[in-house]
Design a protein that fits this description.
about 200 residues, mainly alpha, about 75% helix, globular
Length: about 200
């Protein structure tokens, strides 16, 4: 029963994130495609005239952070056979990072540093968490392999983004490095909801 509850929470959290970003992008002061290609996710959460639904994007950040910490600590921890302390630490780092991103916006010189730290905690921490999970479960099967691939892909995308922050294509790599965690939440939700 716990597995199904956590599975549905994972599914709801990841689906809400995807829908919230899409809706926020629809109302952003740029075309839908250009928003995804040339504007960062963080821009969707800045409370200004460019993003009238900033609150929706920020709620998605906060919800995915709460989803991750609840699901991992409540049930998913039971599937971790090794490195449990690291699993708890990286779950907390990632969750707190995403929540910070939702609460402290970019674009403000007084707070943008905190926002950036939160983003690094969320993105770098999240992809390292996936790699850790893939190597810490009792058996290394298809699920673990998919988790590992997502984590490695996310780290590569993060690295490209980090060293190309002035590129007009930086938002693409930002999204690629963020979506790995969202995809993992969805896949894990689907997996657990069946158990």
């Amino acid at each position: 029963m716990k597995s199904r509850v956590v599975g549905f929470v994972f599914l709801i959290g990841s689906a809400y994130y995807v829908l919230a970003e899409a809706i926020s992008a629809t109302f952003f002061k740029a075309s839908f495609v250009n928003t995804y290609l040339f504007h960062t996710i963080s821009e969707l959460g800045i409370p200004n005239g460019n993003s009238p639904l900033f609150w929706l994007m920020n709620s998605a950040f906060i919800l995915i952070g709460l989803t991750l910490i609840f699901c991992n600590y409540y049930r998913f921890k039971d599937y971790i056979a090794r490195n449990k302390i690291l699993f708890y630490i990286f779950t907390l780092i990632t969750s707190m990072g995403v929540i910070i991103v939702g609460l402290i916006h970019g674009g403000n010189p007084l707070t943008s540093g905190y926002h950036t730290v939160g983003a690094i905690m969320a993105i770098l921490g999240g992809n390292l968490l996936l790699i850790l999970i893939s190597r810490s479960m009792a058996e290394f099967k298809i699920y673990q392999m998919r988790t590992l691939i997502l984590g490695v892909f996310g780290l590569i995308a993060f690295g490209i983004m980090f060293f190309n922050v002035t590129s007009i294509y930086m938002p693409i790599f930002e999204r690629l490095s963020v979506y790995t965690l969202i995809i993992w939440c969805f896949l894990t939700g689907a997996y657990l909801a069946k158990i």
